[in-house]
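User: For my dataset I need records formatted as: sequence, then structure tokens, nothing else. Please produce one.
Assistant:
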Amino acid sequence: MRSGRTQQVLTARWGPGGSTRVPDDLIVEEPLAIRLDGALVATTMRTPGHDFELAVGFCHAEGLLADAPVRTVRYCATGSAVDSEFNVVTVETGGAAPEPRPRLGSVGSSCGLCGREAIDELCARLVRVDAPPFPFAVLATAPDVVRAAQPLFARTGAVHAAAAITREGTVSHVREDIGRHNAVDKVVGRLHLDGSLPASALALFVSGRASFEMVQKAWAAGFAAVVAVSAPSALAVDTARAAGITLAGFARDGRMNVYVEQEMS
């Protein structure tokens, strides 16, 4: 895989004493077409890197795999990866997955459904997460632990992060991307390829807010908890409650707001 994730440009840094010309690292943003068994299912703007994980994670979260095993993941589908500039990834199940229904347009931060209909659809295909309550002390310190493993953010200040965290507070996987949902898909894709789903022994950390889509992806992956730096949406809270997932927000400086607590089974 290529590593062209940042691009250096010359910028004018202005302050009270005037301006100086200095180099600055900018994050690279390019489209990725995701195909399942040759059929286009989505196009997303992403930071190049961990593209196979992103494609597998997206297909898993959307229920497109339907428990079919992933046989191979590769760049392009009809020609050279170089010709497509490494911006097309095909996930192959050998036809074991149902014929995919493409999502029109680019993937954004909205699921395309609304309210109760969205939760009902998830309840129809996903089971409630069955896991012991996640330690609050681990969730509250997650941002500080993950920040040390965010090299792209340190260089550019322009990417989001997602991470899988153990009950002992160890970060097992961190992925960065210009899109929050892409970062989560990369983490889920890595766990899927490692055979580590459902992730009931792990919590999912997300930078930024906890939207419906973040909780949806966490539920599909079987995470026990979701912790975010910012606030959740009302629909995210309702979804976490339906999933049986602990949901916390505003995790900063060892404190957080807990919006949904797991119930003891």
